[in-house]
Amino acid sequence: MTGSTAEERVRALGERWAAAEASADTEALGELLDDDFRGVGPLGFVLTKQQWLGRYEGGLTVEEFGWSDVEVRVFGDAAVAIGTQTQEASFQGRPSSGRFRATQVLVDRDGEWRVAGVHLSPQQQ
Fold first, then answer.
1. Which of 11, 14, 52, 115 is least enclosed by beta carbons within 10 angstroms?
2. How many Cβ atoms are within 10 Å of 51's Cβ, its own excluded?
3. The pTM of the whole model exceeds 0.85
4. How many independent structural domains does the chain possess?
5. What are all long-range contacts of 71-78, with beta carbons under 8 Å and residues at least 24 apart?
6. Half-sphere exposure (CA, 13 Å, Cβ side) for 7?
7. CA-CA-CA-CA torsion sign (118, 120, 47, 21)
8. Which CATH number is 85's domain given?
9. Is residue 1 domain-resident?
10. In a 3-state reduction of DSSP, which class is residue 19?
């Protein structure tokens, strides 16, 4: 994305991340997540990159996934994106659908933005 701003690159990364989550594309997710990634789920559990990717093999099924109302703030080689994540999903046969306020922490590693962290908080419907 030559010529685009850091904010535009972070937004584009968020769109690629959402598409990869929607299609359970662990290969794409593996490229988008920083090696030191940590994800905090809506119940407070913390997952490493490998554990986050392993959710799909472990029984996560996503039928719909959305990423909207995103606000991006860039701080040099770091950025924070706060948006709304909606999903129709189940984990090991149990519903895990919902609407979440999601905070992404992103880092610029040698000109490539990566998601270093995600924190999910349930929102009232």
1. 11
2. 14
3. yes
4. 1
5. 72/7, 72/10, 72/11, 72/14, 74/6, 74/7, 74/10, 76/108, 77/107, 77/108, 78/105, 78/106, 78/107, 78/108
6. 6
7. negative
8. 3.10.450.50
9. no
10. helix
Please tell me the distance from the alpha carbon of residue 85 to that of residue 98, in angstroms, as a whole number.
Answer: 8
Expressed as residue numbers, the domain containing 28 is 6-122
Residue 57's identity, in one-letter code, is E
In a domain, 81, yes or no: yes
Q: Which amino acid is at 103?
A: T
Locate the DSSP E strands across 1-125: 33-40, 46-48, 60-75, 78-91, 94-95, 98-109, 112-122
pLDDT tens sequence across 22-81: 999 999 999 999 999 999 998 899 999 999 999 988 888 999 999 999 999 999 999 999
Counted residue by residue, the chain has a size of 125
DSSP assignment, residue 3? Answer: T
Residue in 86, 105, 87, 91 with CA at minimum distance from that of residue 10: 105
Per the domain annotation, does 69 fall within a domain?
Answer: yes
Backbone angles phi, psi at 97, to 5 degrees: -80, 160
